[in-house]
Task: inverse folding
């Protein structure tokens, strides 16, 4: 949560008054304070932390997806064999 608070300080959010129906619509940034991103050491650290968290989530999710697909393939093969 600390990372989100820190990074939010550099983002100017565009208010659309349209309800969010998918992730791409959620808080689209209008602009970013580049000076803050480049000169605030806390901001850089938080960006690095967010990147590492996202990267780890991607790896775990990709592995889980592969496992689910393998299970579904086994179920299909068993159904076809029956």
Result:
């Amino acid at each position: 949560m600390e990372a989100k608070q820190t990074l939010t300080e550099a983002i100017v959010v565009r208010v659309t008054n349209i309800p969010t129906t998918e992730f791409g619509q959620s808080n689209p940034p209008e602009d970013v304070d580049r000076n803050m991103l480049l000169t605030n050491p806390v901001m850089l650290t938080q960006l690095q932390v967010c990147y590492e968290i996202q990267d780890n989530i991607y790896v775990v999710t990709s592995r889980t997806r592969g496992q689910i697909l393998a299970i579904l393939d086994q179920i299909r093969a068993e159904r076809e064999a029956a």
In short: The two ends are 51 Å apart (CA to CA). The chain has three helices and two strands. Residues 34 and 40 are 10 Å apart (CA to CA). Residues 2-81 form one domain.
